[in-house]
Amino acid sequence: MTSIPISATNVRRRSISVITIGRIVTAFPVLFLGFDTGIKFTHVDAVAQSMNQLGYATGAAPLIGILELVCLAIYLVPSTAVLGALLLTGYLGGAIASHVRVGNPLFSHELFPTYIAGLLWLGLYLRESRLRALLPFRK
Q1: Domain for residue 105, yes or no?
Q2: Which domain holds residue 70?
Q3: Cβ of 64: how many Cβ atoms within 10 Å?
Protein backbone atom coordinates (compact mmCIF):
# COMPACT_ATOMS: atom_id res chain seq x y z
CA MET A 1 0.00 0.00 0.00
CA THR A 2 1.36 3.38 -0.97
CA SER A 3 0.62 6.39 1.13
CA ILE A 4 0.92 9.98 0.11
CA PRO A 5 2.42 12.18 2.79
CA ILE A 6 0.44 15.31 3.48
CA SER A 7 2.53 18.02 4.96
CA ALA A 8 1.34 21.28 6.45
CA THR A 9 3.10 23.10 3.62
CA ASN A 10 1.11 21.26 0.92
CA VAL A 11 -2.18 21.92 2.68
CA ARG A 12 -1.28 25.55 3.21
CA ARG A 13 -0.31 26.02 -0.45
CA ARG A 14 -3.62 24.56 -1.59
CA SER A 15 -5.69 26.79 0.67
CA ILE A 16 -3.73 29.88 -0.34
CA SER A 17 -4.28 29.12 -4.02
CA VAL A 18 -8.02 28.60 -3.47
CA ILE A 19 -8.21 31.91 -1.62
CA THR A 20 -6.25 33.64 -4.39
CA ILE A 21 -8.56 32.22 -7.04
CA GLY A 22 -11.51 33.35 -4.93
CA ARG A 23 -10.14 36.88 -4.80
CA ILE A 24 -9.64 36.93 -8.56
CA VAL A 25 -13.17 35.63 -9.18
CA THR A 26 -14.53 38.20 -6.73
CA ALA A 27 -12.73 41.05 -8.49
CA PHE A 28 -14.83 40.79 -11.66
CA PRO A 29 -18.30 41.36 -10.16
CA VAL A 30 -16.93 43.87 -7.64
CA LEU A 31 -15.36 45.95 -10.41
CA PHE A 32 -18.57 45.79 -12.44
CA LEU A 33 -20.76 46.74 -9.45
CA GLY A 34 -18.32 49.51 -8.52
CA PHE A 35 -18.56 50.93 -12.03
CA ASP A 36 -22.35 50.53 -12.00
CA THR A 37 -22.54 52.34 -8.67
CA GLY A 38 -20.29 55.16 -9.80
CA ILE A 39 -22.14 55.81 -13.04
CA LYS A 40 -25.42 56.22 -11.14
CA PHE A 41 -24.00 59.41 -9.57
CA THR A 42 -23.15 60.96 -12.93
CA HIS A 43 -25.47 62.78 -15.26
CA VAL A 44 -24.70 60.52 -18.22
CA ASP A 45 -27.52 60.29 -20.73
CA ALA A 46 -27.25 56.47 -20.83
CA VAL A 47 -28.18 56.28 -17.14
CA ALA A 48 -31.25 58.47 -17.67
CA GLN A 49 -32.33 56.41 -20.69
CA SER A 50 -31.84 53.15 -18.80
CA MET A 51 -33.80 54.39 -15.79
CA ASN A 52 -36.63 55.60 -18.02
CA GLN A 53 -36.70 52.32 -19.98
CA LEU A 54 -36.98 50.34 -16.74
CA GLY A 55 -39.75 52.61 -15.49
CA TYR A 56 -37.84 54.45 -12.75
CA ALA A 57 -37.54 58.18 -12.25
CA THR A 58 -34.16 59.55 -13.30
CA GLY A 59 -33.78 61.13 -9.87
CA ALA A 60 -33.85 57.68 -8.25
CA ALA A 61 -30.46 56.74 -9.72
CA PRO A 62 -28.36 58.23 -6.89
CA LEU A 63 -30.53 56.56 -4.25
CA ILE A 64 -30.19 53.21 -6.01
CA GLY A 65 -26.45 53.87 -6.27
CA ILE A 66 -26.21 54.49 -2.52
CA LEU A 67 -28.08 51.26 -1.82
CA GLU A 68 -25.77 49.35 -4.15
CA LEU A 69 -22.70 50.97 -2.60
CA VAL A 70 -23.75 50.05 0.94
CA CYS A 71 -24.40 46.42 -0.07
CA LEU A 72 -21.06 46.28 -1.88
CA ALA A 73 -19.20 47.74 1.11
CA ILE A 74 -20.78 45.16 3.43
CA TYR A 75 -19.73 42.43 0.98
CA LEU A 76 -16.13 43.66 0.87
CA VAL A 77 -15.65 43.53 4.67
CA PRO A 78 -14.54 39.94 5.41
CA SER A 79 -16.53 39.60 8.63
CA THR A 80 -19.79 40.69 6.94
CA ALA A 81 -19.19 39.25 3.46
CA VAL A 82 -21.94 36.61 3.71
CA LEU A 83 -24.50 39.26 4.73
CA GLY A 84 -23.26 41.44 1.86
CA ALA A 85 -23.66 38.54 -0.59
CA LEU A 86 -27.23 38.01 0.63
CA LEU A 87 -28.04 41.72 0.28
CA LEU A 88 -26.48 41.92 -3.18
CA THR A 89 -28.42 38.81 -4.22
CA GLY A 90 -31.63 40.59 -3.24
CA TYR A 91 -30.54 43.77 -5.00
CA LEU A 92 -29.71 41.82 -8.16
CA GLY A 93 -33.04 39.99 -7.88
CA GLY A 94 -34.72 43.37 -8.13
CA ALA A 95 -32.70 44.09 -11.25
CA ILE A 96 -33.88 40.81 -12.75
CA ALA A 97 -37.49 41.66 -11.93
CA SER A 98 -37.13 45.08 -13.55
CA HIS A 99 -35.76 43.58 -16.77
CA VAL A 100 -38.42 40.87 -16.87
CA ARG A 101 -41.17 43.44 -16.35
CA VAL A 102 -40.15 45.48 -19.40
CA GLY A 103 -39.44 42.43 -21.56
CA ASN A 104 -35.70 42.82 -22.12
CA PRO A 105 -33.76 39.99 -23.82
CA LEU A 106 -33.24 36.92 -21.64
CA PHE A 107 -29.52 36.13 -21.79
CA SER A 108 -28.10 39.65 -22.14
CA HIS A 109 -30.34 41.56 -19.72
CA GLU A 110 -32.61 39.37 -17.61
CA LEU A 111 -29.97 36.79 -16.65
CA PHE A 112 -26.96 39.12 -16.41
CA PRO A 113 -27.61 39.90 -12.72
CA THR A 114 -27.69 36.13 -12.14
CA TYR A 115 -24.21 35.83 -13.65
CA ILE A 116 -22.96 38.60 -11.35
CA ALA A 117 -24.55 36.99 -8.28
CA GLY A 118 -23.07 33.62 -9.23
CA LEU A 119 -19.59 35.12 -9.43
CA LEU A 120 -20.09 36.92 -6.10
CA TRP A 121 -21.06 33.67 -4.38
CA LEU A 122 -18.36 31.59 -6.11
CA GLY A 123 -15.68 34.09 -5.08
CA LEU A 124 -16.98 34.12 -1.51
CA TYR A 125 -17.17 30.31 -1.44
CA LEU A 126 -13.55 30.05 -2.52
CA ARG A 127 -12.36 32.76 -0.11
CA GLU A 128 -14.26 31.65 2.98
CA SER A 129 -13.36 28.26 4.46
CA ARG A 130 -16.32 28.36 6.87
CA LEU A 131 -18.70 28.63 3.91
CA ARG A 132 -16.97 25.70 2.22
CA ALA A 133 -17.40 23.69 5.43
CA LEU A 134 -21.10 24.64 5.56
CA LEU A 135 -21.73 23.75 1.89
CA PRO A 136 -19.26 20.98 1.03
CA PHE A 137 -19.01 19.62 -2.50
CA ARG A 138 -17.66 16.09 -2.35
CA LYS A 139 -16.62 13.57 -4.95
Answers
A1: yes
A2: 15-133
A3: 17
